[in-house]
Specification:
This protein is an alpha/beta fold and about 400 residues long. Helix content is about 40%, strand content about 10%. α7 links the parallel β6 and β7.
Length: about 400
């Protein structure tokens, strides 16, 4: 297992630094980061990260669903020595957390994915690289050394490009494949539409494609000679709404590590994933960015966990902002959570140090929430540790 870390000690580090007059550069309440980013960063980039499908109803529902669950603390349990480490997809992790795949991070900070990946690596937290990253996957892998990294696939229409991506990811040391299923089309996103802001049309978020030999083989001219043609080639293959369950066999043929399907909200889809030989699912509605009016991810989680049984590893994202959010997701049956928007805001506000701050704040708060609720680690959590708020 991973080396035990005392995450809660971060608060004492902050207090001790305060003896010299130093205070944290960013808020320790991670729910404040979005507003701060809105003041400091451009409306296009912030809108792209913060925005949701339609009126934003699904993003609001994600938060409300987590808030409806309330923690029931237990007393007089020995929580002096705590250990948040666990195994996920056969990999030892120091805590039940990974950084979710977020594309085009160069719009938030020039150090982009490499800064986020280095921050994750420094804390032992897996970094999930988006297919739509601003930085080629090999360069991000180099920035991480031998740290844990997973690769998120936007399943391209072009089978040769997909196979090439998987081959490159394996060669670069990515150990798990996270396949996003809920984005066969780009959703109606008013914040981006009102700004007419889509980074991909400017060649941002296309680094993995523009460096891919199979992708470049489909171009009449090299990318640098006709960048607009390269962008349009990318747009034409980025996603494929014709994919169905039998197509998963192609991924299994080209990837021999764990495969996790991201975007699962219905228990029948979890069963189909298990029947197809997948290793896990992420209960997720893409942070509310794809289907306005969708079921909240936390409301979908218990039924998916029940359907998965012991056949799948169940991960969770969409709405996680605090340590108690993580506690609730784990108590509802998730093995670990993926954190998205907060680390992107941290990156935009303070680069690698900002991402590090977000990771440490979240895990310190989780550690303390566990301890103060009578738990020495995530393994003892069950739904009995929660009640549903009737208000």
């Amino acid at each position: 297992m991973a080396t035990t870390q005392h995450w809660a000690d971060f608060q004492y580090e902050i207090y001790l630094n305060g003896m010299t007059g130093a205070v944290p550069r960013l808020p320790t309440d991670l729910t404040r980061l979005e507003e701060l980013a809105g003041h400091r960063l451009g409306p296009g980039p912030v809108g792209y990260v913060a925005g949701s499908a339609g009126s934003g109803s699904t993003a609001h529902a994600n938060r409300a669903a987590l808030d409806r669950w309330r923690i029931v603390p237990r007393m007089l349990r020995d929580v002096h020595e705590r250990d948040l480490s666990l195994e996920v997809l056969g990999r030892p992790l120091p805590a039940p957390l990974a950084l979710a795949p977020i594309g085009v991070l160069s719009i938030m900070h020039p150090d982009a994915e490499c800064a986020a990946a280095r921050a994750a690596a420094a804390r032992g937290v897996p970094y999930i690289l988006s297919s739509a990253s601003s930085t080629p996957m090999e360069q991000v892998a180099e920035a991480m050394g031998d740290a844990e990294r997973w690769f998120q696939l936007y399943w391209a229409r072009d089978r040769e490009v997909t196979a090439s991506f998987l081959e490159r990811a394996k060669a670069a040391g990515y150990t798990a494949l996270i396949v996003t299923l809920d984005t066969p089309l780009l959703a109606w996103r008013p914040r981006d539409l009102d700004q007419a802001y889509l980074p991909f049309l400017h060649g941002v978020g296309t680094a993995n494609y523009f460096t891919d030999p199979a992708f470049r083989a489909g171009l009449a001219k090299p990318v640098h000679e006709d960048p607009n043609a390269a962008v349009m080639h990318f747009v034409g293959m980025f996603a494929d709404p014709a994919k169905t369950w039998p197509d998963l066999a192609f991924l299994r043929e080209h990837w021999d590590g764990p495969i996790v399907l991201k975007g699962i909200l219905h228990p029948d889809d979890a069963r189909r994933a298990a029947d197809a030989g997948m290793d896990g699912v992420v209960v997720s509605n893409h942070g509310g960015r794809q289907v306005a009016g969708s079921v909240a991810a936390a409301d979908a989680l218990p039924r998916v966990v029940e359907a998965a049984g012991d056949r799948l590893t169940v991960l969770f994202d969409s709405g996680i902002r605090t340590g108690d959010d993580v506690f609730k997701a784990l108590a509802l049956g998730a093995r670990a959570v993926l954190l998205g928007r907060p680390y992107a805001y941290g990156l935009g506000l303070d680069g690698q140090a900002g991402v590090d701050h977000v990771i440490r704040c979240l895990l310190a708060e989780l550690d303390l929430t566990l301890a103060l609720s009578g738990h020495a680690g995530p393994g003892s959590l069950t739904s009995d540790d929660l009640v549903r708020d009737s208000a």
